[in-house]
Fold this sequence. Notes:
Elements: H1 2-10, H2 16-20, H3 22-32, H4 37-52, H5 55-67, H6 76-81, H7 85-100, H8 114-121, H9 126-134, H10 137-149, H11 155-164, H12 171-178, H13 188-195, H14 211-220
Amino acid sequence: MLTYRVLSRLLSYPGAKTVAAVGEMRAVLEGEGLVSSSDRKALEPLLADLESKELLDLQERYVLLFDRSRSLSLHLFEHVHGESRDRGQAMVNLGELYAEHGLEVSDRELPDYLPLFLEFLSLLPPRDAAELLAEPAHVVDALHRRLLKRESCYAGVFGTLLSLAAGKADDEALTALLQEPDTDPDDREALDRAWEETAVTFGPDPHAGCPQTRDLLARMAPPPARS
């Protein structure tokens, strides 16, 4: 479904090609009918900004939001594992799954990057994509709430993802995420402290990895071949 590619593009670093494709993105969102009219309305402020604002301003805003603030990182497993070794293995497994479905990932890309994950979902049937999107819903929901708090037009993308997901966020996992510091990107000292904190893990055994991650990879695994 091209809708997931549009959402992936909207969450990627804005470039000239993205700005030039706004009209096409609107057409896909309306034509495929996967996104409700209310969610399309919520996406419009971002689409309008891409059309009207200077590219350098758009890029600066993106970096300020998603690259400087750990609490808004677009790397899914970072919110689950921090920088622990569990995250590395989870990314290896996810990268292998992408390859099995024909999605090539360059050495410069991390598999848990949300725009890349959405690109992967675009290769799947809508129902399968919706079920997989529900697995990291607690991360998506936390990001959505933080962006709403900042009155950011990017909140519309995350609200749309929550609508597309076939299931709600796990309350316990969401609560744990929302208890993490949500640092102001302009507070450099607080940002430094946030990046120096111990890696975040969830679940009863901190050495066993995160149940949500295991479930995500298990659901994404291809079915066994029939004899």
